[in-house]
Every structure is written in C-alpha cells, then in structure tokens.
Design a protein that fits this description.
Strand content: 5-15%
Radius of gyration: 24 Å
Mean pLDDT: 98
Bound molecules: FE(4)-NI(1)-S(5) CLUSTER with Oxygen, iron/sulfur cluster
Shape: globular
Oligomer: single chain
Distance between the termini: 57 Å
Length: 627
C-alpha cells in the first residue's frame, strides 16, 4: 500500500529516505516502520521496565498504579525488577562490544603467528605504544612478536585475575579515586558481564542500588575495556584514521558499477573485501560484465570503520538498511554482526541482491552463510567479490530506482591522533579555545536511529543548536551518518556555527562536527576527554562536556550511556529507557548520582529542549572553572 506524503515525512527527514520509503511500499515491502506500527500499542509494563521473566515462577509484572500486584512471585518489587532489567541490558551491550574486541585480538595474535595471510600490522607505532602500556618490553622485538605478546596480554583483560583493567592508566587520577570509593573499578571484561548475569538471577542481588552500581562497573568494563581494545587493535591492524573526504546517502550506489554494501560492525571482514575489490583481475572481470568499477558502500558501523580509514562512502545509517535494498542496485550485501535486522534477507528476495552472512556467531534467514576466518579470509573475500561482480548482470531493470538526489559530501577520520595532529600535536590549543570562550565546550552526539523518532530529526536538530552556540560536536555511529547526510560534516558547514567555533574551524580547516568513528570508537571521545582532564590536572566531570544519544535503540547504547556518566559526562537520552516504573531509580540516575559521580542522566525527547539543557550544563561547568 502506498504511503501518503504526510506518513512519509513523519518517518524521516532525509530526502533519500522519503523517496525510498515510497519505492519500498510500491515494491510491496514491509519495513521497520510498518512493523513498528503493527506492534502498537507496545507493552506498557515492558516500557516501564516492570516486567520480569528471569525465572519460571514468572513471568511477572508490577502494577505501576498500585492497584494490581506490587511484587513478583519471588517477592521482587518494582525497584529490584527495573534494576535487574537495566543491568541485563548493560550486560548485553557490554558483551557485544567486548566480544567484537575479542575477535580483533584473535586476528592480532594470528597475524603475529603468521596465520592470517592478507592481514598485517598497519600501525607499528600504535602497537608499540599499547604494548608498552601493557608492560611489554618493546625494544628489539619484531612487530610479529609484539603482536603475539600483546594479544596474550589482552586476552588476560577478559578474565578474572586482575584488580583493574590496563587502560585505566589513561583515566585521570581523581576519576579512579571516585570509582575506587564506590567499588566500581572494572576488573575483568567478561567477569563484570558474567557477574551481572549472576547478580540478576533470582535470589542473588536484591538491593537496587547495589545492582545499579555493578551496572556502572559492567559498563566501564566495556568503555575502558572491551570497546577500548576493539578500537586500539583495529587501529593497530588497519591503521589510525586520518582526515579523509567522502560522500553519503543512497546516491553513493552507482548504476554503472558493481555495488557491494558492507553492513555490521567489525572491520575484520570488510577490510578484506576492500582489499579484494582492488584486485586487478576482479576489476577486469567487472569491466567484462559491463561495469565501470567495483563500488563499496557502507552501512552502520562497519561502514564507519571503512569510511574512517579508507574513505569509502556511506549508503546510510540504521533505518536506511532496508531502504538501500529497495534501490535494486545492491549486487551484494555482506553483513557481520550487530544491528542487522533479521528482516533484511527476506526483503532482498524481492531483488537480485546476494545476501551474505560472514560470522560464525551471526546467521540470518534468507542469507547465504560464508564464514570468514583469519586463516582463509583473503581467499574468501576474493570469492565473494567475484560473486558480486557476476551478479551485476542479474539486476532487474523494472525494480531499479537510482537515488534522485546527489550524494552529500563529508569529511571523516578524526581519531584522537588526527585531532591532536590538526592542533599541532597537543591539546593545548583546544584548551586555549575553550578558555577564551571561542569554543564553549564539546559534546558527543552519538547513537542510533529508532522508528519511534522521525529519522535523523533528533540528531540534526540537537547538533545544529549546539554548533550555533559555539559548542564543538564530536560524533560516532549512526548519529555521525545523520549529521553527514544533513551536510554538517564539511568545513563549509562552519558558516552555520557560532562566531567563535566558526573561526576555530576556519583556522584549522575542519568541520564543526567531527566524525570520530563507529560506536566502539566512542572510546576515542573518552580518550580525548581524559587527555584534556589530565593536561589540566583535573577530572573529566569538571570539564564543559556532555553527551547525547537522541535516537538510541540498542543495548549497546545503554552500556555506552552508562560508561559515559560513570566517566563523568552528563548524558541526555532522547528515547526513554525502561526505568520509569521505579521512581527511586529515576531519581537516582537523574539527580542523586550527580553527588556520587559528578555527572547524571537526563531524558529529553525534544532536541530543542535537550540542547537548552546541555548549553546550560556547559555554562555551569565553565562558571565552576572560573571561565
Ligand atoms: O553500534 S549507532 S544502530 S549501527 S548500535 Fe547500531 Fe546504534 Fe547504529 Fe553501530 Ni551503534
Ligand atoms: Fe517473577 Fe521473580 Fe521469577 Fe522475575 S525472578 S519472573 S519477578 S518470580
């Protein structure tokens, strides 16, 4: 059934999204928005966090109005049930990021052992730096030896034998003291997740405050552990991102080229596909088939990883993943894991698109499974790119609709190293700009799309307001792609910033919104915040910083938000988390936690109001610093 203009506009602010929502409807597809409508009304108990199915005496639910049951069969009340549910969300998010990190450590070890042909060490400099941080003597050792030693040391981080994770050495002294006092210093990465699953089993931790504190520790084991390892090892294997120009939106899919779309999170597979797509033999085959080249395009965070290091264009963010298929131009979509809607395979059956899953732990309906392992990835990548090329001629002309709008230009690649490089090697010029007031502060605008919010509306409006108020925005994940589509990631976008930020951007030739990578790369933001605090000899919570996730949906986002607050960063969520069934927990997380951590959460779906709160927060932090 076709959609009305009003229906389409309510779903997304993006031009390409609006066009392809109608195309998908014409092709008879059911999208994430349709399925969301079909789910309405969603369960009110679950929305408030008041339902529990942790055991078989249940499922149970608590009546928020006090007329029905106030306890589950075991006796758990609203506070306990909400805290347990939140704890399990954090555990799932932390596990996802950290298992991604573990997969990279495995590749690092196999590269060192000479068992991963095609992979190499692209940043020996970072390998040495990180190895030293892990207490490994680097002098006189080959990169291969170091890779093996570092991989072993990192494997230890996942276990139970440590008192504190190694990367905590980068955390400001004052912050570490806060964590020690609260007893939330993260130890082993897997240990904290495992302990969370234990604590939330029936009859274990039934003190909601104690559960939430462990939730923070579990999230910190992601931020300063699993995700940190994922980012650092990705840089070691694939290179440290440097500023790069690229393009975004469905216009990046080419009518006259073989389009391979890479979707998921871990760069291990997509980097190999990138290499294979440069193979002269495969390029010649593409030309034989009548294509002028092999075009790679990214979706979600695998896309962001390749964009940051290789400049490959982005087809879109989370809610564009189905619509990308409806162009009829995708010859192959390759997925690894996380945020890959199980609906994708079936949608692709409407077109000629080959759908390929690649991870032993992530299989999907209607996809061909081609498992990648470090030992054989190179050959596998060539085989798949060849299949994509051969599929080019099978496009169904009647089902093709190229994007009517041109792709939008963008810049990416702002690793901490690149930002410090642009500043001349030290954070001092940024600190000076903050002191002078040219830059009032910095905010990480991160996270997903969610069909509960008009696509990209939350990100783009919040970020515009912040820029206008001389606040530098750094971003990652699907938020970064939203900003890019809106044209905010080119140096010229500084024209829409306040006068101070405009001047700084012009002097450095940078956009006012800096792309720092994928969602695991949120740790780059932490790293930068810690470096600023360390330079000033203060705590992260003293700095004029904030974070926002205007359209978050995933459990990973919950973990990120929790490690941001635990690290001292005020964080505003656009979609409400399932905690409103417990007034005690809402009060703790939005008010009282400030006294414990120097930072708190806020929930504000309206981006204008969210901007106002953040601007006020930054004003207060500046005032406290005497600025
Ligand atoms: O890790 S922002 S929708 S793609 S969870 Fe997923 Fe959210 Fe996108 Fe990347 Ni992050
Ligand atoms: Fe019900 Fe308690 Fe079992 Fe949860 S753990 S399902 S509240 S009995």
């Amino acid at each position: 059934m076709l959609l009305t203009k009003a229906e389409i506009q309510a779903r997304t602010i993006t031009e390409d999204g609006q066009v392809f929502l109608q195309k998908a409807a014409q092709d008879g597809l059911e999208t994430v928005w349709d399925r969301y409508e079909a789910q309405k009304p969603q369960c009110g108990f679950c929305e408030m966090g008041l339902s529990c199915r942790n055991c078989s005496m249940g499922p149970c639910r608590i009546d928020p109005f006090g007329e029905g049951p106030l306890r589950g069969v075991c006796g758990a009340d609203a506070d306990i049930i909400v805290a347990r549910n939140l704890g399990r969300m954090i555990a799932a998010g932390s596990a996802s990021h950290s298992d991604h990190g573990r997969d990279l450590v495995e590749v690092l070890r196999k590269v060192g052992e000479g068992r991963a042909p095609g992979y190499t060490i692209r940043s020996v400099e970072k390998l040495k730096k990180v190895a030293s941080e892990f207490g490994i003597a680097v002098d006189g050792k080959t990169p291969s030896d170091l890779a093996v030693e570092l991989a072993h040391a990192m494997e230890e981080e996942f276990g139970t034998r440590k008192k504190a994770l190694t990367f905590l050495a980068r955390v400001p002294e004052k912050r570490r003291a806060v964590w020690n006092k609260l007893g939330i210093t993260p130890r082993g990465i897997d240990r904290e997740t495992s302990e969370m699953m234990h604590r939330t089993h029936m009859g274990v931790d039934n003190d909601w405050l104690s559960l939430l504190l462990h939730g923070l520790r579990n999230a910190l084991s992601d931020g300063w552990g699993g995700s940190f390892i994922a980012t650092e090892v990705s840089d070691i294997l694939f290179g440290i991102p440097q500023p790069v120009s690229s393009e975004v939106n469905l216009g990046v899919l080419k009518e006259n080229q073989v389009n391979i779309v890479l979707h998921g999170h871990n760069p291990i597979v997509s980097e190999m596909i990138y290499e294979a797509a440069q193979d002269p033999e495969l390029l010649a085959l593409a030309s034989q088939k009548g294509a002028t080249g092999i075009n790679l395009a990214g979706l979600c965070c695998t896309g962001n990883e390749l964009l940051m290091r290789r400049g490959i264009p982005m087809a879109g963010n989370h809610l564009m993943t189905e619509l990308a298929l409806s162009t009829g131009l995708v010859d192959m979509m390759l997925v690894d894991y996380q945020c890959i809607m199980p609906a994708l395979g079936e949608i692709a059956t409407c077109y000629h698109t080959l759908m390929i899953s690649t991870s032993d732990k992530a299989k999907y309906p209607h996809m061909a499974h081609h498992e990648f392992h470090p030992e054989t990835a190179q050959g596998k990548a060539r085989e798949l790119v060849r299949q994509a090329v051969e599929n080019y001629g099978r496009r169904i002309p009647a089902k093709i609709l190229p994007a009517p709008n041109a792709s939008t230009k963008m810049m990416a690649g702002f690793s901490v190293e690149a930002i410090l490089g642009a500043l001349g090697g030290s954070p001092a010029p940024l600190i000076d700009a903050i002191k002078s007031g040219a830059v009032q502060g910095a905010v990480g605008v991160v996270g997903c799309n969610n069909p509960k919010i008009q696509q990209d509306y939350g990100h783009v409006n919040l970020t515009r307001r912040l820029m206008e108020n001389d606040i530098l925005v750094v971003d990652t994940g699907c938020a970064a792609v939203a900003h890019a589509k809106a044209g905010l990631k080119v140096p010229e976008a500084a024209a829409h910033a306040g006068p101070g930020l405009q001047q700084v951007c012009k002097a450095l030739g940078i956009p006012p919104v800096l792309h720092m990578g994928s969602c695991v790369d949120n740790v780059r933001i932490l790293d930068l915040a810690a470096a600023l605090a360390n330079t000033l000899g203060t705590d992260i919570s003293d700095l004029p910083l904030a974070a926002a996730a205007p359209e978050w949906y995933s459990e990973k986002a919950v973990s990120i938000a929790c490690y941001a607050v635990a690290s001292g960063v005020f964080t505003v969520l656009g979609t409400p988390p399932p905690i409103f069934g417990s007034p005690n927990i809402v009060k703790l997380l939005t008010e009282d936690i400030e006294g414990l951590l120097g930072a708190s959460f806020a929930v504000e779906p309206n981006p204008e109001k969210a901007a106002a709160r953040i601007i006020e927060h930054i004003r207060q932090k500046r005032k406290a610093l005497g600025l």
